[in-house]
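INTERNAL AUDIT FORM
Audit reference: QA-55
Scope: verify that the stored structure record matches its stored sequence.
Auditor: D.O.
Record contents follow.
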Amino acid sequence: MATLRLRLILSLSAAFLVSCATAPRSPTPPEEPPDPASAPAVWLEAGGIPVHAFDQGPRDADILVLGVHGWGASGAEGLAFGRALEREARSAAAPESGSPTVRLVSPDLPGSGASGKPEAPYTPEWFVGILDGLREALGREKVVLAGHSLGGRLALEYALVHPDRVEALVLLAPAGLAESFYPLDRWALGRDSIIRAGANLTTERLYLRFYRNRVVRDPRYAYPGIAEWAIAGLRTPEGRQALRETTRHALAAPDLTDRLEEIEVPVFLVWGRKDEVLRFESSATYLQLLPDLRGFLALEDCGHHPQTERSEETARAVYRFLSDLRAAGISPP
């Protein structure tokens, strides 16, 4: 009986990690893949924890965007978006144009990537403290938070606690609503045995399959370097423990539906219509309840990674959103 139960747990964990979407297969990437190992980066400190962060754009930029990555990922997932955002800012720049410059800082949140992996609660409240420490370390009174998936939930949580420190939110296929999860994932998140087994089964092979077959719609955007940077942080016992605690306490945290109307800052929402991780249909709840939603970019034939799969379109829309805010007189950070 125990052996049968173990097999069931392992099978369900594997299904949770590698359930597949149907997507065309092509080995050729659409552009030069981002290389996390050579990308510009800085080391910061938040809550006494060393935090590695990718750093794109001028240090003295008008707008600081703090990227907040998703579950089991790393700051490297922002590299393609940051590259596109830099191009968009350059193309808008002209003498006396007033177009703002933008800097994107994408940290490996503690427990992920190259950052420290302490014994910690890994609750939304704890991550809010980490994000505030990063804001302070970067010397800004206000930041734009660009949160993807679980990072979108953490960005919302931060804005609820510190609305005076947020210039705006960019939500990229955000978590935070129970209705966003597909039924099997929602079921698995409620079972600790599945969470433990799933974290222990996180191998490079399974992670890459999950990335190619479920996270992105087009596997050409499953950049190996991005996946390898994330999985390197999960190979250690400390990384696996951090992933378990993040899953238990942050990804499976209570639903935020009833708190969306409390979000005071401007929001821009982006979602892929073919998202196989978080249901596109749940975007309707954000559209209905967010008081200051300024725009919604719904991307056709795009999966869970709009900032990677459709980096140019996403960057163009986000830059326009930020430029319009600045032109309308939103105070600089």
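Auditor finding: record pair retrieved intact. Residues 1-27 have pLDDT under 50 and may be disordered.
Action required: none
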